[in-house]
């Protein structure tokens, strides 16, 4: 009979977290899991590499979209271009991670993952950085993109508060 959670699963979960903390950290394990670049997403990452946030824009209805897709979710047109956007937005939703789920994030605890609503419309899941000790983050807070390289790998678009020092 399949388990539906409960005390035993919770204990195993906690033990897994302890193992995660005391294991030797190899260099590979210290890198966060990174996105796979596909043909569709390559222009996005190439733009990030230059420190510019770019989104697909439908050539038919002019709507920006994210994540990248072949077809416009608004009008089903397949014609599009990649355009630089402001990198500005607001926090639509967020969660603060206080537990360790991956060794690469150990030094970041606690860290904030947010759904950012970009000024151009699409929403993007990212991490908020440079928040300091201040615990007053609220939905609707204005943010701007800030690129950070992950190891020797990708430049990731992260976000910080607009008035961050
Ligand atoms: Zn469209």
| Ligand catalogue | zinc ion
Helix content: 10-25%
The biggest beta sheet, please?
A: 5 strands, mixed, barrel
Broad shape: globular
- Helix count equals 2
Largest sheet, spatial ordering of strands? 4-5-6-8-7
* Count of extended strands: 8
Domain module tally: 1
The radius of gyration is 19 Å
On the 0 to 100 scale, the average pLDDT is 85
How much beta, percentage-wise? Answer: 25-35%
Report low-confidence residues grouped into runs of 5 or more: 1-6
Structural class, by secondary structure, is: alpha+beta
Summarize the structure in words.
With 165 residues, this protein is of the alpha+beta class. The radius of gyration is 19 Å and the shape is globular. 15% of the residues lie in helices and 32% in strands. A hairpin with a 4-residue loop joins strand 5 and strand 6. The protein has one domain. It binds zinc ion. The site of zinc ion has 8 residues, from loops.
Descriptive terms for the model:
165 residues, alpha+beta, five-stranded mixed barrel, three-stranded antiparallel β-sheet, 15% helix, globular, binds zinc ion
Could you give the topology of this structure?
Blueprint (H helix, E strand, L loop, with lengths): L6 H16 L19 H8 L4 E5 L5 E2 L14 E5 L3 E10 L13 E8 L4 E7 L12 E8 L5 E7 L4
Parallel strand pairs: 6-8
Antiparallel strand pairs: 1-2, 1-3, 4-5, 4-7, 5-6, 7-8
Bound molecules: zinc ion.
How do you describe this structure in short?
The protein has 165 residues and is α+β, with helices and mostly antiparallel strands. The chain has 2 helices and 8 strands. The site of zinc ion has 8 residues, from loops.
């Amino acid at each position: 009979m399949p388990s539906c959670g409960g005390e035993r699963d919770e204990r195993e979960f906690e033990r897994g977290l302890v193992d995660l903390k005391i294991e030797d950290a190899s260099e590979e394990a210290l890198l966060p899991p990174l996105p796979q670049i596909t043909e569709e997403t390559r222009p996005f990452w190439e733009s990030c590499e230059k420190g510019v946030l770019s989104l697909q824009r439908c050539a038919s209805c002019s709507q920006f979209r994210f994540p990248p897709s072949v077809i416009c979710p608004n009008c089903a047109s397949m014609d599009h271009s990649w355009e630089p956007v402001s990198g500005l937005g607001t926090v639509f939703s967020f969660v603060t991670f206080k537990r360790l789920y991956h060794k690469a994030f150990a030094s970041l605890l606690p860290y904030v993952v947010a759904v950012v609503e970009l000024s151009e419309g699409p929403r993007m899941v990212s991490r908020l950085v440079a928040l300091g000790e201040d615990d007053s983050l609220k939905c609707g807070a204005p943010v701007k993109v800030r690129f950070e390289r992950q190891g020797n790998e990708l430049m990731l678009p992260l976000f910080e508060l607009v008035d961050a020092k």
